Amino acid sequence: MALHSTSPGSLYLLQGKPNPNGAPDAALYLLAGDATAGPITEIILAPGVQASPSLLPLDRPVRIKLLHFNDFHSHVSSFTAQGDVPVFSRVASWLHGTRARYADDPQVVVLASSGGDESGGAIFDALLGTTPGSYQVHAGYRLYSEVGVDVGVLGNHDLDRGFALLAHAIRQDVRFPVLAANVTGSRELAACCFPAAIFVVRGVRVGFIGLVTPAQIRPVPNSQRRVTDPVEAALNLIPVVRPLCDVLIILSHLGYSLNQHSAAVRMAGDVELARSLPAGAVHLIVGAHTHNVLNEGGLSAGNIVNGIPIVQAGKFGQFVGEVDITVREMAVVTHARLTPTIDLPIDEAFEREHVQPLIARVRPYRERTIGRVADDPDLSTDAVRNGFAAGESAFANFIADALASQAQAHGYLVDFAMIDASSVGCGLPLGRQLTFGDWFEVMPFADTLCLIRLSGRELRTLLQDNTRRLDRPGQPHTERGFLHFSQQVRYAIRLGAAASSAQVEDICVNGEPIEDDLERIFVVATSSFVRGPVGGWEAHARMQLGQTLFDLQQLPQEYTALFVRDLLVEYITAHGGVLAEGGAKRDGRLRVSLR
Length: 595
Fold this sequence. Notes:
Layout: E1 10-16, E2 27-32, E3 42-45, E4 62-69, E5 77-80, E6 83-86, H1 88-101, E7 108-114, H2 139-147, E8 151-153, H3 163-173, E9 178-179, E10 183-184, H4 187-190, E11 193-194, E12 196-201, E13 204-212, E14 226-227, H5 230-241, E15 247-253, H6 270-276, E16 284-286, E17 304-305, E18 308-311, E19 319-327, E20 331-340, H7 348-367, E21 369-373, H8 381-387, H9 394-409, E22 416-419, E23 433-435, H10 436-442, E24 448-455, H11 456-467, E25 484-485, E26 489-494, E27 503-509, E28 512-513, E29 521-527, H12 535-543, E30 557-563, H13 564-574, E31 577-578, E32 590-593
Parallel strand pairs: 1-3, 4-7, 7-8, 8-9, 9-11, 13-15, 15-16, 16-18, 21-31, 22-29, 26-32
Antiparallel strand pairs: 1-2, 2-12, 4-19, 5-6, 10-14, 12-13, 17-18, 19-20, 21-23, 22-25, 24-29, 24-30, 26-27, 27-28
Helix pairs in contact: 1-7, 2-7, 9-13
C-alpha cells in the first residue's frame, strides 16, 4: 500500500486489508502519516473511503474478546536435549479453539494482538540475515500471519537489525497491520507501519494505537530515524482517533512503569501513560517489554490506573492473555485473565504444516560445528550463573579478548574491551564440540559492537565503581553489572570489611600504570547492551544505600553495525573453539584479596 504524504497535523484514513486468517467479516482502516510532529487536527479520507458512523447504543451487547501475547523473542519452539518442545503451536490451539467456540455467536468478536519484540533471542533469528539480500524468513511474523493475528505493535528489539531489514520482513511475512505511532524519519517503515488501525466488525468500531519504548534503541548516525516521546504521540492522536472508535485500545511496548527494572523504561511506562491521558480517552492498555505477568487470576485493582486497565502476558510464550470488553451504550472491560501456555494442547496440524518447516530451515544453523570447548569448569553454565561476578573468569577473559581482537581486525582502533553478564546467557558443553546453536544460547540477542571513549581518570573511577559490583564472600548474588576486561587491563581489588570500603589498586593498561595516563583517551570495545539489566540494583544502591555509581551512558559512544555474536563466532572458528590457546584461561589480570 503506497503511503500518501501529508502535511504536519494531518493523517490519511486508508482502506486496509485485514488478515484473511483473522477475525471474519472485519473491515480494516489504517491511519497513515507522521503522528510525532504535533497534534493531529485533520483526518483526510483517501479516495473511496468513508468513516464508519457509530451504531451505539446497540440493541444487544457485543463482547470484544481480545486475545494477546507479547515478547516472544523468536521462542516459537524450544530446543532441549530431549527434543523439540512446541510453544507457538499451543498458542495456535488456543486462538483457533477460541475462534471456533464463538464462530456462531453474533454477539462475540474475537481479535488477536501481538505486543512486539517478535525477534531477538532465539536461533530462528538466524533466518533473518543481516540485510534484505540475506533475509530468508521472519519466523514470528510468518506464524502470526498464519495463525490469524489481527494487529501488532513494534518492539525495541524488532529494530535491532535496522529499519530497512525490518521493513523487508514486514513486507514479506506480515498479513496484519503493524503499528508504531512514535517512530518517525524512516521512509522504509512509513510505507508498511502505521500509527493506528480501526477494525469495524459486528457494527463495533475497535481502534488500536501502537507505541514503542525509546529505551534500548540504538541511534543511527546521520539519520532522522527516531523513536519519540510515546505520551506526546498518544496525545497527538487520541483527540482525532477517539471519535472514529467505539473502543480504543493502546498496544504498548513501553514497559509497565518507570519503577520496573526488568528492562529499561524511558520517558513513560504504561502506568505513567495512563496517568497522562484524559479520563475515558482509551479503554485498555495492552502492555509488553518488561515481561510482567499481570492479572493471572483476574483483573487486579492495582492494574487499573486512571480508570484504564493494564494487561501484560509475561514473555517467551509462557502465558497468553484474554480480555473481554463489553459494548452496548458504552464500552467497558469486564474480564481479564492469563492462561499458562503449558496447560494448552498442541495444534498438531499447525505444528506440522507451519512450525516444522521453519525448524527444518534453522536446523543446519543449530548443528553447524564451529570448534571445540576446553574442559574447564569456568566455561560451564554453573560457573556463569554462580561465579561470573566473583572474580576472574576464563570464560569472561576469552570473550573480552576476542571482542578486542575482532574490533581491531575490523578496523577499529580500540585499546581494550569490556563485558558483563548481560553479554552471556549461559555456559558451554565442556570438552565437546561447539555448535553455532550452542553459541547462540550464550549470546541470544542482537547486541552490536559499541565503542566507548573514556579518559584514564574515568577508567580509574570506573574500576573503583566495579569494586562495589563484585560478589563478595557470603553475599547473595544479584546482577550488579560487574565488568570484565581484556588482557590489556590488569588491576587488583582489595575487598575490605564492606563494599563501601573496597578499593581498586595497581591499575595498568598495556603494562603502564594508569597514574601515568590519566588524561589519555582510551577507546573501549563493548556490547551495545552492556549493563542493560542492572537498573534495579543501581536504583537500590543509589536510593537505599546512598552509593554514587559510575554511569556508562554519560560517556561518548559510537554504535557500529557489527553484531557481537557474529564477531565471536568468527574468532572461535579461527581459533578452533573456546580453548586455552585462544584465551580461555585465567592469567591473573584481576586479583582479589580480602585486605
